[in-house]
Amino acid sequence: MKPQLRFPEVLRNIGRRWHGSGDGVGWLGISFCHYMKTQTIARILALCFVALLVGCVSGTVQLEQVFPQPEPGKGLVYFYRRERKTPLSLCYDVEEHAKPIGAVKNGTYFFVQASPGPHTYTAYTEATGTFTPEVEAGHTYYIECGINLEVFTGRSEYHIADDAEAKVVLESLKYFIRNP
Fold this sequence. Notes:
The protein is α+β, with helices and mostly antiparallel strands. It has two domains: 7-54, no CATH class; 59-178, Sandwich (Immunoglobulin-like). It has three helices and twelve strands, in the order ααβββββββββββαβ. It has helices spanning 7-19, 32-54, 163-171, and strands at 59-61, 75-80, 92-96, 99-104, 108-114, 117-118, 121-124, 128-131, 134-135, 140-149, 154-160, 174-178. The strands form three sheets. The chain has a six-stranded mixed beta sheet, covered by helices on one side. The chain has a four-stranded antiparallel beta sheet with strand order 4-3-7-8, with no helix packed on it. The longest helix has 23 residues, at 32-54. The protein is elongated and about 65 Å long. Mean pLDDT is 75; it is low at 50-55.
């Protein structure tokens, strides 16, 4: 009569065949479980990296910088994001009344001609951020955009920048046009 193998013993026997011996170390000097764990972690990290790239806004970086003046009866609003040397480079659309008006990526800027009055600009990352400046005709506003990294999300943040400082920063950035 053949001895009956229980399920855990069957798994151990399969593992011994993979490893080549019963000591738990395979022919590559690593255990099968260690190999599978590192492969799984590598795959998860690769998928996260691809998800960050795919989630970015598509558009065109212009070779020539554009710095217009406000149109008559309107205010000019620049949105910009400083160049940061970071592996995590989130990007997001900026919307007004649920309509995209531009996109903010690392090291880029865009602008809108806005009618006088309050304007509510919204950006969507993993969390929603809003900003409501009061625009006056004939004035230029510089809004510095950024990302506040929280535990599991990146929240967009805005603040009105100093004119002199913003003009210097804009010279080093690229003009970005969002694809419709």
